[in-house]
Target: Sterol desaturase family protein
Amino acid sequence: MLVFLTFWTLIGITVSDRLRSGILAQKSRFDWIIDTIGLLIQGFLIPAIQIVVLNRFCSYLMPQAAGCLTLNPVLAFGLSFIAVDYLYYWNHRGLHSKWLWRSHLVHHTVTQMDVLGTSRNTIWTSFVIVYVWVHGLFIYLLSDPSWYILGVSLTSALDLWRHSGLWVSERSHIYRIISLILILPQDHAWHHAAEITNCNYGANFKLWDVIHQTYYSASEFPERLGVESNLSLMRRLFLP
Model:
């Protein structure tokens, strides 16, 4: 519910703002198709796989392990929101390696930050992201996965916001608090910059980028976003 509420709130803000609604109007037909397919995959297909397919697969391999893990709610939340976030940092860096970059390139064809581009990927790239498999496993193992799922939902909501282009004013009080901790839309915009893409890999926390010296900060917005690509629609969907 949190994810859907965040998505439609960001869509509403985008459409109601003349400048941002103009950004949506500039999207090409290819962009609309691949963004819509990506959102359907990450919003519906992957949760269904985690809840149904992976659950049955785990019950087949480990029938005695269902609900065997009991964690304090704070630890369960921290497992998904912090520990898995660190795994994703390395997963994301791996997607930028010379071996996997072509599978991730489509995501970086976004030329304007907007919430609809959050899930822009090839159809199969989503399945090499750590979230799919780790979340499915822990939902199966935890006796009460509700707090773990809350962390998953908050991560997904922040991911939508991070791609929305809705910057937090540096003069606001909330900026002074969350900018020390979270990857903000302005941070992630630099990850999508045309001139540099090897920075700000983190999803929730900028701590991982700071520790591993991949954090980049600038007060201005990148001059240009996205990498150029002349791939056909079918290659963007399947074989970049």
In short: The chain has one domain: 28-237. The chain has a mean pLDDT of 89. The two ends are 33 Å apart (CA to CA). Residues 28-237 form one domain.
